């Protein structure tokens, strides 16, 4: 089953007088992997909570399968939420339950499946995330990376059509993050669900998604094919992707323009955007993600609306796809270690 499209239009969220972001508009293409970037404190996690109806926006709409989550009834919202699976930052596992019972929990709460069927489903999801044999362990007895994977198995247990990842790489070292990134790509190939990842990790943003968005200065600065942002000459993009101090982003999200200009003048010529890395492919034996062909057709249709640099990057990527599999698919094996 292909994931569903999520259409967000003019979304605005505030807490009291504090505006978090305004007029956020984007469409998550069905079955594709999207990433939402942005400096700390820009409301990326708030966006995820708004997307599933945990927070109510002041304006805008979120339309899924023809239903607007902002204006629908509680009964309709409950049904739409069944389409979602969520991986929280810390896994959000029940500390008193072993991994098996944690992963089985949504099935016991929301379905009438027999324990035999539940056992089969849990075993399948644990195998998908590389946790077979760890069913009896408690969350406090395993590593952070294993807790993330257990949380991911629980997020997948109801076969959601939309999966949200709230900073899945937080607290993980670069090696575990690389394994997790490969796992996300492989799971997208297996499920064909719509994925949205909130992250600060630049390597994840460069190598995992089909689409990238950037939240900045209380609005969505851009959202589109990965090549659009990764080839952008916008100062905030170059600063964020290079992880440098000089630029419009400050300690408290943004600097005033005079300070930013002064720093740039003092720093002199700075490197531009980093070289664009190839997108991760699936692990050996899985075959190409179904989303790849759909995305290729979709991006070709919108190619004329993109910058020349993005158009060139897309053409090169499509030409490379036609000549053979990406070498990046061989770099990281399917997850199985801890």
From TrEMBL:
Domain ABC transporter intervals: 6-242
Record-annotated membrane-spanning stretches: none
CDD domains: ABC_Org_Solvent_Resistant
Stretches for region Disordered: 247-296, 312-338
Database matches in PROSITE patterns: ABC_TRANSPORTER_1 (PS00211), ABC_TRANSPORTER_2 (PS50893)
Annotated Basic and acidic residues bias: 247-265
Database matches in Pfam families: ABC_tran
GO molecular function, one term: ATP binding
SUPFAM superfamilies per UniProt: P-loop containing nucleoside triphosphate hydrolases
Keyword terms, alphabetized: ATP-binding, Nucleotide-binding, Transport
PANTHER family, per database record: INTERMEMBRANE PHOSPHOLIPID TRANSPORT SYSTEM ATP-BINDING PROTEIN MLAF, PROTEIN TRIGALACTOSYLDIACYLGLYCEROL 3, CHLOROPLASTIC
Protein name, entry field: Phospholipid/cholesterol/gamma-HCH transport system ATP-binding protein
Source organism (scientific name): Pseudonocardia parietis
């Amino acid at each position: 089953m292909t994931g569903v499209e999520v259409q967000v239009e003019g979304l605005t969220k505030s807490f009291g007088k504090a505006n978090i972001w305004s007029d956020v508009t984007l469409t998550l293409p069905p079955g594709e992997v999207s990433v939402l970037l942005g400096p700390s404190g820009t409301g990326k996690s708030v966006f995820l909570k708004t997307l599933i109806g945990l927070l109510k926006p002041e304006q805008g709409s979120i339309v899924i399968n023809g239903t607007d989550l902002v204006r629908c009834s509680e009964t309709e919202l409950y049904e739409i939420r069944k389409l979602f699976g969520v991986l929280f930052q810390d896994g959000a596992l029940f500390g008193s339950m072993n991994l098996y019972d944690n992963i089985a929990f949504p099935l016991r709460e929301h379905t009438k499946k027999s324990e035999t069927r539940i056992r089969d489903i849990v075993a399948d999801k644990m195998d998908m995330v590389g946790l077979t044999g760890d069913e009896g362990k408690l969350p406090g007895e395993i590593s952070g990376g294993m807790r993330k994977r257990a949380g991911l198995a629980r997020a997948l247990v109801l076969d959601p059509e939309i999966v949200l990842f709230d900073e899945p790489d937080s607290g993980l070292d670069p090696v575990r993050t690389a394994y997790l990134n490969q796992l996300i790509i492989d799971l997208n190939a297996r499920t064909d669900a719509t994925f949205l990842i909130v992250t600060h990790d630049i390597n994840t943003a460069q190598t995992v998604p089909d689409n990238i968005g950037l939240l900045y200065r209380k609005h969505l600065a851009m959202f589109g094919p990965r090549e659009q942002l990764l080839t952008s000459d916008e100062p905030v993009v170059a600063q964020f992707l290079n992880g440098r101090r000089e630029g419009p982003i400050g300690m408290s999200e943004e600097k005033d323009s005079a300070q930013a200009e002064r720093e740039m003048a003092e720093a002199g010529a700075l490197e531009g955007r980093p070289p664009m890395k190839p997108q991760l492919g699936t692990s050996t034996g899985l075959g190409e993600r179904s989303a790849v062909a759909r995305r290729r057709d979709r991006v070709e249709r919108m190619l004329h609306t993109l910058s020349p640099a993005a158009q060139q990057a897309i053409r090169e990527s499509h030409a490379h796809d036609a000549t053979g599999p990406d070498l990046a698919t061989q770099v990281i094996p399917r997850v199985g270690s801890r």
